[in-house]
Amino acid sequence: MSCHHEHNHDDDHIEPPSTVFANLFNYIDIPNIKILNAEEPENAVGIVRPNEEKLVQEPVLTTDADEELLISIPFIGHVKLHSVFIRSLGDDTSPKEIKLYKNNVNLDFDTVGSAQCIQTLNYPESIGPGITTSDGTDGIVQFAVNRPKFSNISSVTLHITQNYGAEQTKLLYLGFRGDFTELKSAPVIAQYEAAANPSDHKVENRNMQQQSSIN
């Protein structure tokens, strides 16, 4: 299914939004991240990490059977997504096309083709460690997303459809920036016993007296 394309030129890189909770790492439901077609999915989750660890080069997420990769990121509340950060090795294992989906953590390779793609990102060639990008980071590419379309979302899924020619795709870092809104708890419905009616007690007492006199 076709979706909006973002060509990765300098105008794709945006300034960080002015928000206290700009980096969304603390609001990602880490245990429920789903990665399909990774060699070691349990270790691959490690590429999603805090902003201060974005330049760490381990672990490396490596695809298993081919170059395709599907990563579903659930949040613990609602998010208005501003941008996606991706870091690769800067060689032919780097992703080339990344399709974004929202609010569907159950996507797999059988269903993603019929799902509604919200936006397509084109990752630049030869951007990796040792190469400073336009936003001043070491090989990290920042993609601006369509904010109105990624407003009030509970999850985002990335589908890497192809790389630059290698049999496997490799990623070093994946991060997100935006605004977070905590989920509100459901209202508590309390049941209260109706106040006693004094006349009820009079009737009850009268009945008890009648029963006593009969006995």
Automatic annotation (TrEMBL):
<dbReference type="GO" id="GO:0005634">
    <property type="term" value="C:nucleus"/>
</dbReference>
<dbReference type="GO" id="GO:0005737">
    <property type="term" value="C:cytoplasm"/>
</dbReference>
<comment type="similarity">
    <text>Belongs to the PITHD1 family.</text>
</comment>
<dbReference type="InterPro" id="IPR045099">
    <property type="entry name" value="PITH1-like"/>
</dbReference>
<dbReference type="InterPro" id="IPR008979">
    <property type="entry name" value="Galactose-bd-like_sf"/>
</dbReference>
<dbReference type="InterPro" id="IPR037047">
    <property type="entry name" value="PITH_dom_sf"/>
</dbReference>
<dbReference type="Pfam" id="PF06201">
    <property type="entry name" value="PITH"/>
</dbReference>
<feature type="domain" description="PITH">
    <location>
        <begin position="13"/>
        <end position="196"/>
    </location>
</feature>
<dbReference type="InterPro" id="IPR010400">
    <property type="entry name" value="PITH_dom"/>
</dbReference>
<protein>
    <recommendedName>
        <fullName>PITH domain-containing protein</fullName>
    </recommendedName>
</protein>
